Structure formats: structure tokens, C-alpha cells
Amino acid sequence: MSIQLKSECTTNEPKKKYDIKLEDETERKFRMLSVLSYFIVLVIIGIPIWWYTTRVYRAPLPIDKINSLELKPQQSREFGIPLSLDYDILISFVHPDPESLRIKANATVIDFNLQNFLEKISLVADFTVKSQWLYLTELGAVPRKIIDRYVLLENQLPHIITPLETKLWSHISPRPSINLVVYFPHCQTPLYIFKSSNEMSTTNAFVSPRWGGIYILNPDKQSCESGHFEADPKEIVSIFQQMLLELFKIPDTSERTLKDFVLSRIEDMLESSKRTLQSLAQLLSEISSIVISDKVANKINVALKSVRRTEELLNRNNLEEALTYAKIAFKKSEEAFAHPSLLALLYFPDDQKYAIYIPLFLPVMIPVIISLVHLRRKKGSKSKTE
Questions:
Q1: 313 in helix, strand or coil?
Q2: Where in the cell is it found (predicted)?
């Protein structure tokens, strides 16, 4: 009996080992398939989808054509009115003592006479004329009394602009503003502007290159005694015209001078458009996280074509059409450079994207990778034992 039991045990032992071996093989295959499925879902499918959904849309741009634009060497130039296609001309009448003296200045007549002058230079830009009155506003500079006159020296004139600037609304306009100010001094203290050569200014006015000009108009003695002063609109317009000619650096209003002025503005707009396009191309090339929408790409393409067209027309001496395309190039290049969509993801570069998403993917990927390595080693050791 004992011999028969022993033989039964020996015959069942290999079968049990074989069954355990099959179970281990099935479990190993299941683990491998499970790990591979995680790997496929996370690495082969998940990472490409993540990369595609988090990538920045960038419309194609003619970067090479933009970089091939020829620029003139920059030269130091005097400050002047900023280059623009639209300007606001703000006429301000400043009256510090309305109780003692009533002043009448017909703004409608001034506007009408000023428009005749602006029409001559309106080819290069559009002008919007507005006016305002400021009361109880003093000048920032203290005049000096020389003999029987109160004098403002030339080095005091910049200090006049600062207090006036806080009272003007020109800084809220989206367009460059040209300030034309008429200041009516107190009757007791008429003001006169003296140049650095100790000569009295013939116009009693001065110009600040990027700001505008101030005209000091002293009421006459008879008006001060009667308490009523009526300013001459033609005299004011004449001073304003001189200021605008000086601000735009135009010697006179002759046909030849205005033609040279138009040519100069075309060249300025053309050069500004080229520099803006190249600066934008360099920015977009260096920062890959900036979105380039189709609108921005279209503006850049139109600006580039207009630049090329303007150069062709200038070579043919066709100033009228060249001015039209120069305006388009300048406008589109500025709109593209200042487009709000360029700043949408400017502060979310790739390194920050990795810093956010790696802590999400890495903890999940580590066990999967370790399991793959472990299964591979186990399979290799098993093949060696066999």
C-alpha cells in the first residue's frame, strides 16, 4: 500500500508544476499586455495628442522676403511730430482771470480759416480740429520783471508746458495730438518772450517739437479798461500756421515745397514700414509661443506687397499712387505690430508648459516604464534558464 501511494504522489507532482507554470505564463502575458496598453495610451497616443492640442497656431509668413528689405542707415534727426496718418489738433484758449476780463475768440472762424491751410497738407494725413477753454489756469513759470515789462526767458518756456499738460485732454486721444494754445495774461502783467539773444520775440510765441506751440496774446490797454477783449481770429490763425509749418518742418506753402514734403513723408512711411516689418519678423522668429493669426499674417503680407509697390512707383516718379500705397504699408504694418493677439500667449512659453504638464505625466509614466523593464528582464532570465 505504501508503495502505491508514493507512486501516485510522484505522478501528480509534475502536473501541478505544469499547471502553476501555465498560470504564471498567463499572468505574465496579462501583465505585459496591461503595461503595453498603458504605454500605448500614454506615450504613443497621449503625448502626440497633448502636443497637438497645446501647440500654438502660427500662420506662415514671408520671413525671408521681409529680411531682404533694404533699409537706409539711421541718421540722427531732430525731434518732430510723430509719424501718423491721423492727427488731432487741439486749440486751447487759456484765460487765468475771467472775472476781470471777458474775452471773445470765435473758434468757428479760426477753425474755418485753419482748414484752408490744412487742406494743403491733408494729402499726407487727416486732421481733426477741436477746441476748449481753460479758466483759472496759470503758467508754471514765474516771469521776470525787466524795467516795465514781465518777461519769460527762453529757458523758462519748457516749464510752461508741464502744468498745462495736466489740464489738456489730448493725452486720452489714440492719435498723436498737436496742441495749439492761446494764453491771455493778466492785464496787470502782460507777458513777453525773450530769446536767448536777449531779443524780444516778434510773434510772442514758441514751439515745442513733439508737443505743439503756445501763443501769448496780451490784451490791449483799452480792452483791459473796458473789461472786454475780442481776439482777432486772423492773427491767431496766422500764428498757428507758422507753428504748424515749423512743427512739420515745411519752409513755406509753395507747390514745390509741398511736393518735396509729400516725397519726404512717403520715404518716411516707407522706411518706418520696413523697420516695423523686420522688427516683427525678428520677434516672431525668436519667440515661438506667440500666436500668429490669419489676420496678422494677412496684414503683414499686404504691408509687404505695398512696400514693394511703393518702391516701384517711386522709381517711376509717380508720387500720387506711391503715397497711397505708402499709407497702406504704414497702416498695415503698425496694425500688425500692435495687434492684441500677439500678446495672447506671450507669457506662457514652452518651458512653462513643460513645467506644468511634466508633473502630471511623469508619476504615471514611471511605474509603466519600470514594469516594462522588469518584464523584459524577467523574460530574458527565463530564456537563459530554459
A1: helix
A2: Endoplasmic reticulum membrane
Kindly state the cell numbers that stand for 25: 505564463
**Where do the structural domains in the chain lie, given as residue ranges?**
63-76+255-343, 86-247
Contact present, 178 and 171 (Cβ < 8 Å): no
pTM here?
0.76
Q: Encode the chain (386 residues) as per-residue pLDDT tens digits.
A: 444 444 444 555 555 555 555 556 676 677 677 767 777 777 777 777 777 766 778 889 999 999 999 988 877 666 678 899 999 999 999 999 899 899 998 888 888 889 988 998 888 999 999 888 999 888 878 888 887 788 988 888 888 888 788 777 766 677 888 999 999 999 988 999 988 777 888 899 999 888 899 999 999 999 999 999 999 999 999 999 999 999 999 998 898 999 999 999 999 999 999 999 999 999 888 887 788 889 999 999 999 999 999 999 999 999 999 999 999 999 999 999 999 888 765 556 666 667 766 777 677 677 767 776 766 666 555 554 55
In CATH, what is the architecture of 86-247? 3-Layer(aba) Sandwich (3.40)
CB atoms within 10 A of CB 161: 19
